[in-house]
Fold this sequence. Notes:
The chain is mostly helical. It has a two-stranded antiparallel ribbon with strand order 1-2. The protein contains seven helices and two strands. Strand 1 and strand 2 form a beta hairpin. The protein has helices at residues 15-31, 33-43, 47-52, 64-84, 99-143, 149-173, 176-179; strands spanning 88-91, 94-97. It starts with 14 loop residues before the first helix and ends with a helix. Helix 4 packs antiparallel against helix 5.
Amino acid sequence: xxxxxDPDGNKRSYxxxxxxxxxxxKVVELCFVGPEEILNKFQxxxxxxxxxxxxxxxxDPMDVDGTREKxxxxxxxxxxxxRLVTNHIDFPLLQLQCDHIISELSSAAYSLADxxxxxxxxxxQDRAGTILHEWESTFDRIKHKPEDEVELAxxxxxxxxxxxxxxxxxxxxxxxxxxx
Length: 180
């Protein structure tokens, strides 16, 4: 017995079966429309997973405003991901459980935000340490008693340079007008 051929040697027709197969394929195709839409929503945030394992592109910890903006953008992405869809979504023929991908993507976003802030804090700490070291060496030089007229002249010249290059710009930046 050959299901494709009848006893007379003619090819058998299974129109009902072929029709049922086509309808089933269409139903399965329609059942995947919703999950594909959810997948597309998550794929908009895949950059978070790419950046989480490497240096953060465009991060300049010396640029406080830029780092704040980048941090805020990562935190916003984490917040959006957590509200993108519910953890479990029922579709015909299947159920999506999104809690793992929501957790992974939002954790990556918040981790990137933390890395931005940590990089900025370390940069500020390094700069503050450098400034403190320079200030201490300047202070030590100023408080050191000159032993002769040459050292006294060098100290006066040094204090004049400090006044012009450090004190005046600092006073200008902390003027009452700019503070208020």
